[in-house]
From TrEMBL:
Biochemical pathway: Porphyrin-containing compound metabolism; protoporphyrin-IX biosynthesis; 5-aminolevulinate from L-glutamyl-tRNA(Glu): step 2/2
Family in the record: Belongs to the class-III pyridoxal-phosphate-dependent aminotransferase family. HemL subfamily.
PROSITE patterns reported for this sequence: AA_TRANSFER_CLASS_3
Gene that produces this protein: hemL
Protein name as annotated: Glutamate-1-semialdehyde 2,1-aminomutase
Chief location bin: cytoplasm
Length: 433
């Protein structure tokens, strides 16, 4: 008897195989398409604004490795720097001049950072910044905001409960309640709530950590008033203000969100762009605070691969490329052109839709108004987003596979690439309308 099976694509085959040895078949959850359904695409190569999957299909890529690929994939200068560095050895566990150079560059570009420590992931950067804030203040409590993601350190994995001044429960299994009992979760952009928190417990708050442009609940901008008040309250009460610019740093502009808003945090976490696609992240800030880090201070932190020479070479070359004249103007224009085009195309199909862009980051929402809170963002039409996502994927356009993520353009997303995307969206909106 002949068995008739529907033929499986290479992506399907790889996904089935991956699930045998890797939980869910992926090494980071959002890659698994759980939110949108279907088979994740297994990527074989990338160049400029594109990548190709295992079935040979080309996509215009709007995640750019979730931020790092700001100069476009496989930029020849970045690749050459990596190859040159690799030829000299991959890792030494001893300092190199390249680490000094990238530290100097980061301090020059982000003036609030007087000293910086390199790590290998955004998670390490925020986790270490928290430890430093606690070590420096001798206080335990931390404030974070609903919908902001700061990596997966235990004390930051807190259910985003919106109740006023309620302490959160862990969002993840395996995080003891004791570990998060000092984490206070407040509403993003809610000034009175923040004021209340400081009024009732200001002298026990070690730090406030915030994404000044939030990119982990789709794209939501902090209001300038919210960040200004946050800065004032932290100063008044001796709490450390940590800007998590892992995503928005070197993305919304050369000086990050802090330059855009004109607000100076005490500490900043960076990642993504500063590694140019290899694992580099960092935390830094006022020298007087950073001097509390080991080996000269009492706050411990370390890493076998921290400041890895190959990764630093990729990061340093990327930091040079983003300083070319007009880089951020081009990037911003591309994101705006995309959002405007998508919005017009949705309007033609009579679909409630709006979008926003900040520098090279963008968000789009299946709702009438741009959200300013987690709750408003969650109220978007998820079903329609999912149909749009899959429609665009069929058309060869890869947006983030979840409604809760921001999107990214690179310097290689030319007008022609954006217009091709908008034409595809026009067809998809008609189909899903
Ligand atoms: N902070 C922010 C704002 C992020 O967007 C992310 C990752 N998306 C992280 C921290 C964690 O970075 P990583 O995934 O490199 O650990």
């Amino acid at each position: 008897m002949t068995e008739h099976r529907p033929s499986m694509s290479k992506n399907d085959q790889l996904f089935a195989r991956a699930q045998q040895t890797t939980p869910g078949g992926v090494n980071s959850p959002v890659r698994a398409f759980r939110s949108v359904g279907g088979t994740p695409r297994f990527i074989t190569r990338a160049e400029g604004p594109y990548f190709w999957d295992a079935d040979g299909k080309r996509y215009i890529d709007y995640i750019g490795s979730w931020g790092p690929a700001i100069v476009g994939h496989a930029h020849p200068q970045v690749i050459k720097a990596v190859q040159d560095a690799a030829a000299n050895g991959l890792s030494f566990g001893a300092p190199t001049e390249g680490e000094i150079e990238i530290a100097e560059e980061i301090c020059r570009l982000v003036p609030s950072i007087e000293q910086v420590r390199l790590v290998s992931s955004g998670t390490e950067a925020t986790m270490s910044a928290l430890r430093l804030a606690r070590g420096a203040t001798g206080r335990d409590k931390i404030v974070k905001f609903e919908g902001c993601y700061h990596g997966h350190a235990d004390s930051l994995l807190v259910k985003a409960g919106s109740g006023l001044l309620t302490f959160g429960n862990p969002t993840s299994a395996g995080v003891p309640e004791d570990f998060v009992k000092h984490t206070l979760v407040l509403d993003y952009n809610n000034i009175p709530q923040l004021e209340d928190a400081f009024a009732s417990m200001g002298d026990t708050i070690a730090c406030v950590i915030v994404e000044p442009v939030a990119g982990n609940m789709n794209l939501i901008r902090a209001t300038p008033e919210f960040l200004t008040r946050m800065r004032e309250l932290c100063t008044e009460h001796g709490a450390v203000l940590i800007f998590d610019e892992v995503m928005c740093g070197f993305r919304v502009g050369l000086g990050g969100a802090q330059e855009m808003y004109g607000i100076t945090p005490d500490l900043t976490a960076l990642g993504k762009v500063i590694g140019g696609g290899l694992p580099v992240a960092a935390f830094g800030g006022r020298a007087e605070l950073m001097q509390k880090m080991a080996p000269i201070g009492p706050v411990y932190q370390a890493g076998t691969l921290s400041g890895n020479p190959v990764a630093v070479a990729a990061g340093m070359t990327t930091l040079k490329l983003i300083q070319e004249p007009g880089f951020y103007e081009r990037l911003g224009r591309a994101a705006e052109r995309l959002v405007k085009g998508l919005t017009e195309a949705a309007k033609e199909a009579d679909i409630p839709f709006c979008g926003d862009a900040v520098g090279g980051m963008f968000g789009f929402y299946f709702s009438h108004n741009i959200p300013s809170t987690y709750g408003q963002m969650m109220a978007g039409d998820k079903e329609r987003f999912n149909r749009f996502f899959h429609g665009m994927l069929d058309e060869g356009v890869y947006f983030a596979p979840a409604m809760f993520e921001a999107g990214f353009v690179s310097a290689q997303h030319t007008d022609a690439v954006i217009d091709e995307t908008i034409e595809a969206a026009r067809r998809v909106f008609k189909r899903i309308g």
